[in-house]
Each structure stands twice: as C-alpha cells, then as structure tokens.
Amino acid sequence: MNKKFVFILILLTLLLYARPFWQWFQAKKGAPGPSFHVVSALPGATNERPFMKEEFIGPPGAMQVHAASMAELGDGTLAAVWYGGEYEGSKDTRIYFTTRVPRAPGEEGEWSLPRGIVDRVSAGKELKRYIKKTGNPLIFSGPGDRLWLIYVTVSVGGWSGSALNVTVSHDRGRNWAPGRRLTLSPFFNVSELVRNNPLPLTGGGYVIPIYHECIGIFSELLWFFPKSDGKGLNYRKTRLTWGKRFLQPTIVALSPDSAVTFHRGHGVRKNIGMSFGEDGGETWTAPGYIELPNPDAGIAALLLSDGRVLLAYNHHRETRENLSLAVSDRGFRSWRRAAVLEDTPGEEFSYPYLLPTGDGSIHLVYTWKRQRIKHVVFNEAWLHKQVSDER
Asked: Looking at the 3D structure of the chain, how many domains does it have?
C-alpha cells in the first residue's frame, strides 16, 4: 500500500467523522460536570385507605406491543408511550402515544385512542437517514409542561446497531418537533438504548439510565440538559458498569449527592445487580448482587416515603411469567416480596415502568403477554398492607 493511498484513506476517514465529532464535542462542551440529584420520595400518607386499580391502556389489537413508559403533566394528565408492530423488530413498528386527562381535580378521565407518532418512514425523513425499525421509547415531562420523548431507531442489524433520538412537544403531545439524533460518541455512534425513568437534577436537566449492547453489554447514564427554549440541548454520557453482566439500569436518589442503581442481570448468575454512587453520580461502586432473581429481564425501582425502595421485577430465574413487587429494608440488605401481580406459566409479563405522581399514587405500566399494555395504580397504604400480610 503506497503512501498516497494511505493519505487518501486517512483524509476520507477524517472527513467522514468530522461532523459527528463536532456534534459530540458541542453537545458535551455545554453539559455540566457532576450533578446533584433531586430526591423525589413519595409524600408520606399514613392515614390513607389502601387502594389498587388495574386496567389496560388502549383497545386490544392484532399487533405485539412492548416497552411502555409514562409521564405526568402539571394538571395531573398522564401520558404514555410504547412501541408496537407485527413482532419485535419488524419494519412496521411504530411508537404509540396516548393521554388521560382528569375530568376534575382528583378524578380520573379516559385514555385517548392511541396514535402513532414515530415510525421508520417519519424517522427516516426527520433524521435524514435510512431507518430499519423503531424501538424503546421514554417519555418524561419538563418545565412548561413540555413532553420529551427519547426513542430508539435501528438502521443496520439488530438492537446492537441502535441509536438514540429525541423529540419534544410544546403542546402536551398534540404536535412533535422533528426528531434529532443524539451523538453520544464521535466514532460509531451506535448501540445505545434507553429504558427507565429519568431523575431530575437540582441545577436543571435530568440523568437518564441508558445501556449499550454491542461487543460489551453495560449500563450507562445520559446527562441531559435542555435549554429554556426547549430547542437547545447539551448532553453527555458516563459509564456505570463494565463487561457483559449488567444492563438496563434504574436509578434512585437517596440524598442530594448519593444514589443507588439496580441492573438487569445478563450474566450466568440470575439475580438483580446493585451499585452505589456518592459524588453526584460521576463514579459508582462495582455492582454486587441482591437476593432477588432476574431472568435477564427489565426491572424498575422507586423511592418510598420512608426511605425504602420498591422494585418491580420478574420473580424467576428463567422466565418472564411472574411479575412481582418487592420492598427493601432501609439499608438494602434484605428484600420482602410484597405482591404478585401476574403469574401464568408460559406467558410473558415484562418491562415494568414505575411513576410516582403528585397525589402520592404509584403507577406501573408493563407488557402484558405482548398483546396489551397494562396499567396498575396503587398507594403506599396498599403496598404496606401487602408487606404486612406476607409476614
């Protein structure tokens, strides 16, 4: 290979990566350093009567649905998203959106008819690239009742070839801005996925659990800082774990500068992983295992009013046929199984997502047999009664 040919190859490589490198540099340059978490425990409500309600979101259909998430707006309106298609990874997958507006303060409304807001065709036009399929969506609310949506697209291969994209709605989900790709790496900006709920930060912005699935399989954090106009955006990512044992983290703030993360287990040992951060989330301990099983499936965590943590997970080491709730002690040394929400051999109940709302309720959405999105809402009084009944 002569020197002229080598020089041309180097020049072409530099030109190829110049734009993504500049995008990555600009996004990271404006992102703050180590941040402090907002501790968002549920308000204590010891005199409440226990309640629990179950329902499905949206009518039954012929498609498979998966990976739901939820957000709450200032007036109590709930928004939910998920993706659905002929099967997971099919070209007809699209992201669906629905809302439930309260009829009056303290009263529930009806879920609107779900509508598609992102598919491979619309994403391809907005992102100016070929899109093969869409995947996991994460919705959350921000100042001014903006709704943010981070979603997965794949151009080549499977989920290991994924990328993260973002769009925002300034009118409570009626209209969405054109999507834009998040450049999280200046080279080979692929294999980034999102799953669990973000934590707000005291200085503004969010820390969002994400994960990587190409060559290595590991948990990460996305530090996400929208500007006040809802258009400008800075972001950066940091690593949570190494190797191939953990992914899909869920994060809980314990104090203004400490947090705990729980991880979907991917290794030989079929248990949930746990790690701690003590410096605003910049560095983390190596994950250890807790006693709860995990069949290589998604989990969700939430801080309760008394400082304990609630986990939604599959209580099984091999299958996703059982969906349960468990509550920790205050030191996370032991866990008590509080409730069994689903338990049907041969079926799948998976990808739980927990959302605390302003009225002190706990909302849970999850995949029900890949056929429906199920919504469960309960309060801490109901949860404590389940724990007491288990003793």
From this structure: 1
